[in-house]
Design a protein that fits this description.
58% strand, 8-stranded antiparallel β-barrel, globular, alpha+beta, 10 strands, 18% helix, Porin
């Protein structure tokens, strides 16, 4: 092997080990949320003391509850959140408020309309109580501004995603386990 390949291999191994240690040194959590418009599986990865990335996979069934659609939608989103206020109790439980922007995409039900492809921007504003036992509960509001695509009479029809704004007024209640 020539020296260039050995150097590149060593560099890649060092970067991989560094990233691996950095990722595993950060707190992570996994849990779920529930609201009128669906249930979600949630994964959070903290980047430091005051910011985290949240990945969410959601089964969207608000239109099923209202008897307007037969099948649930599936949405995936990612948000980058910043904790802008934090308070500790005497027994080290943490209460924090957070907010952040993100993106959303998937197959979703539209308000009073058929299902179709959804994509757009998502916000996340919430309040969380993290307990010392490795568990947290949260409440958040997640408005979505986006587009809804569907096929209608052999044509592709695009509207704004009304359900993302209307149903975002209903809060999501979550529970997560930190590891």
């Amino acid at each position: 092997m020539n020296m260039k390949k050995i150097y590149m291999t060593g560099t890649v191994i060092m970067i991989t080990l560094f990233v691996h240690v950095q990722i595993h040194a950060q707190p992570k959590s996994f849990g779920g949320t529930y609201s009128f418009n669906g249930i979600s599986a949630v994964y959070e990865h903290w980047n430091g003391n005051d910011s985290f990335i949240e990945f969410k996979i959601k089964a969207d069934f608000a239109e099923i509850f209202l008897n307007r659609d037969a099948l649930p939608g599936g949405l995936a989103s990612a948000t980058w959140n910043v904790a802008f206020w934090e308070s500790r109790s005497r027994n080290d439980n943490i209460i924090r408020a957070y907010a952040g922007p993100g993106i959303i995409m998937g197959w979703g039900s539209e308000y009073n309309d058929r299902s179709g492809i959804v994509f757009g921007f998502k916000g996340n504003v919430g309040l969380e109580c993290a307990f010392t036992r490795g568990m947290s509960i949260s409440i958040c509001i997640c408005p979505t501004v986006g587009a809804h695509l569907r096929i209608m009479d052999e044509y592709l029809k695009m509207n704004y995603y009304k359900a993302g704004l209307i149903y975002s007024l209903l809060p999501e209640i979550g529970i997560k386990y930190y590891f």
